Structure prediction request, 1034 residues.
Amino acid sequence: MTINLNRRNLLGLGLGAGSAALLAACGDSGPSDKVTGGGQNAAPAATDYTGPNVSLAFWNGFTGGDGPFMKKLVDQFNTEHPNIKVTMNVYQWADYYQKVPAAVSTGNGPDLGIMHVDHVATNAARGVVLPLDDLAKTLNLTEADFSPPVWKAGVYHDKRYSIPLDVHPLGLFYNKSVLEKAGLDPAKPPMTADDYMKALDTLKSKGIQGHWATPFPFTGEMQFTALLWQFGGQLFDEQGTKPMFAEQAGVQALTWLTDLVKNGYSPKNVAQDADVVALRNGKNAFNWNGIWTINTLKEDKALQWGAAPLPQIGTQKAAWAGSHQFVQFKQKQADANKLTAGKVFINWISQHSIEWAKGGQVPARKEIRDSAEFQALTEQAAIGTQIDYLQFLPSTPGISDAMATVDTAVNEAILLRKEPGKALADAAAKAGQILEANRKKYGN
Amino acid sequence: MALATASAAATRQDAPPGGRIRRVGIATPYLFLLPYLLLFGTFVLAPAAYGLWVSLHDWDYLLPGKPFVGLANYHALLDSGSAVYEEFWQSMRATGIFTVASVPLLVVVPLGLALLLNRSFPGRTFFRAVYFAPYVLGVAVIGVLWRFLLDPNLGAVNGLLRAVGLPSDTPWITGLPWAWISLVAVTVWWTIGFNAVIYLAGLQDIPRELYEAARIDGGGKWAEFRHITLPGLRPVLVFVVINTMLASSNMFGQSLLITQGAPGNETRTAIMYIAEKGLREYNMGTAAAMSYVLTLALLLASVIIFRLFRDRDAV
Amino acid sequence: MTRTRGIAWYTILIGLSLIFIAPLVWMLITSFKTTGEATRVPPTLLPQEPSTHAYDTLFAADSQTPVLRWFLNSLLAAGAQAVLILVVASMAAYALARLEFRGKKLLFGLIIGTLFVPVFTLIIPNFLIVDRFGWLDTLWALIVPGAAGAFGVFFLRQFFLGLPRELEEAAQLEGANAWQIFSKVILPLSKPALATLAVISFLANWNDFIWPVYVLFSPEHFTLPPGLSILQGAYTIDYPVIMGGAALASVPALILFLITQRYVIEGVSRSGLKG
Prediction:
């Protein structure tokens, strides 16, 4: 943790004039001019690239197990396109989101990248990413090719800034051996509220706590939002100006999770990742977790497990999902060749995203989701059936700042420090202030 | 009274130079300082001044408008109706709790350890390395390791307690005051070697003749410690106290990784909150203002500590 | 020491050691487990299915993850920064501890004052400055800015204050100038402090994570902390890989520590006051 030669003379305490100039120059180093090109009425982008050789920098957060699948696709793309050379750099997501804007602001940004859908609006508002309407137009991409919520998620201020690569929904993961031991059918996990509670009761009578309720965002917040939507609620209003998660549906959702602990279906004080670790150790039967859990569970060769859509606890079907989306970054000097080549790359990867699905994702493209090849990926396909009722956060800049208050509410309720209603009301009051400040900051 | 003389000698070392002949040119001190000041001016002073300037603006390095807001960012921290007031002061309280709980332990325990390891016995270098070993690991590893060991339901710590028949449902990282106990204990375990090696180096500075003189006088171990070791270590002790206080008040990695600020936001420290505001939400003006309020609080705290030391010379 | 006292002494030392060593041993054992076995409850003491999965991942021949290269970069950055700190901080600390000049109190106050400013405040301004120098994505960014911190100056000044003055005065009477006193008297007397500062500075840089993540872009320029982090899963924790990486990173640091302790212990044999 150290943050800490200039040839200019800085004698004693007086800063040289040079440094003052240097700092003044730092004052507005952000690319702040309004973006032109690539907007709504843009000319269609080319679908193939015939220009001079270009090299493109492609940054993303596909570390660990995800990386190799993307790397393979990039290598294949490079082989098929001799005049485009894409180099892929990988960073942890958290670092990536701090690093990329800083790099773009100094003109060191990459050409292409991936962003989670809830980061797109923020980066569009801050001028980090470029509009991609022309690409959508050329490729004749429409809602119908993807699914409405996934497709709409990349639009901010009536401009499209991102093209969906995949969706990664929450799913139900279950330990077949544990279900069997409790006398439940390991081939048919419970799919309704009643069946789910019955199963939990049965498990409890056998001394097994069947759904470990985690107070941490990964994946407590995701479970809460899924339930909120199932009970017919919303996190925010359409424009992302008003928090709505503290209304009745939200209280119902959080109460349901909290009651798991109160009624002994879950232990108290579940730590980060303890829910899935318990599932792997046969101490937990059900875990609502992201689709990435497929890869984690596959590592346990002896483990008997399955994946399914989330059970419907509320009045309608719904599930939380994230989505990786392609973006193009703003450069100090726009290079038409690079922009075109980048769009060719995005289109090509999107068309080949079945390979990506094998890494534990649901492809965003409908034609690929419907393919036999994807249906053969049993677990992915099971979780992918939820595609039409997945929900995303509104495309509002800085929306994740407001979501931090939800994290706190979920934490306090599940740790039994506050009643769900009170925890959510407190969070909503804070979230309202944050949304208002962001509206002022990013403009309407 | 050789002891008294020895003690006086030990203290005299840091007496200010009085009336010695000095043949130092007028520029000499500045030439010694120059290389460091070049670096300091460029990478510390200028950025710190810049940070002050940022704190007077609604500032995001990527947005075109960076409106000047005067003291509004500071005002918001003192206005109980603002969006940041409650969370900021809660994070300051968390930092306060951690600092007050950890600093005395981190100052005293390593001193005892250093005195033990300063003796001459077979294997002392090995033992020094053992106690220092945790410190060579980065906070990322420490965090992951202890979060796993302290997991209330599945962790090895409660597992061991269960095995020996003690209560085994302590919420080490999710309840209070346990989360603080864990964070302080992990930090002591992790960084005890850091201050211990500083003390060990400091102990080498104390002339051994003083101890020999004291031994002839037959003053006993405690008297030696009081009248020779402590005065001889005084400048180093000042460093250790200040530096430990600053290190503890800058703590965020342990909280981020072990407790994630939970329960609620109880263990979210000021630095963690400042980083969230500045680097994740891009409200850099607010974050800079918070940084300087924290700076001010730490300066006040250290003035109070100095008063306790009552030592004008070593500081 | 009598025999029984000797036995008691070592019992205490070894007992204490266990607390410090056990988690580290557990770290090492975990690095030889499979990902599944690493999260067994209750944990297995020794790997049931010993696996080199972690080390295979770490040393997979891949242009994206040149672990050896990261290792060398870390060594170079941490080593160079430690040397730079020793040079500039010892000179500045000598002036502040032993020389008289106008504005000394004010300057020292200012230097110490900056220690109180949280490092996060300096990240973005420093990033912009390093960019001006054209140092982004180079090791310069990891070596130079971090050497500007006040820690080393404060540390050495406190040690210099405690040095006995007699030797300096003797050298002065023999006509030595300030530079000669500094290099021939002060520095040799301060070996323990310099060795300690070297190891502390080295480690701070060796384990630094936040700053490198900002200023380095290319995998071939990474140091170990940001490098090892990209071997971990994006959404799941691979304990063996983390622990294996930590084991790799901690070995050189411990070796360096053992080397520097020689200078600290050597200091005991020197005599302070020539009575």
Q: What stands out?
A: Chain B is about 70% helix and 0% strand. Residues 1-21 of chain B have pLDDT under 50 and may be disordered.
